[in-house]
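Materials and Methods. Structural model of Putative membrane protein. The 142-residue sequence of Putative membrane protein from Microbulbifer rhizosphaerae was retrieved and submitted for structure prediction as follows.
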Amino acid sequence: MAVTVDRRYQRELHPLHAFLLAGMVPLFLGAMLSDIAYAFSYQIQWINFASWLIAGGLVFGACALVWAVIDLFRADRLERFPLVYALLLLATWILGFINALVHAKDAWAIMPAGLALSVIVVVLAGAATWAGFSGIRARGDV
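The predicted structure was written out as tokens:
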């Protein structure tokens, strides 16, 4: 006799939303690693890399933030902490934007503020991604 397990998901994250949310983290992480590389080598090109990676992370983050705000107002969504998720995304985007403004300065002038902001943004992006994906739970009723 075969046993079938009926899995019900509390919430499904749309694949495009998941792509935008998960794509933000490596971009901000790459910017942080570029800042670390600049701190050790003083090659100005690392700051250019970091600036472009931050810009890409902001684009992905803005799209994920818009999606999260829309999901906040949808009545059929049952998430564990939708407001915390949206606020984490908002904080990530705001600090990422400030980080982009800091990176727009001269390469010598951005240290150590640029590196510190990059670390904070990576931590916030990771927390936002965790909050976004943590609402997905499968329940099996036998």
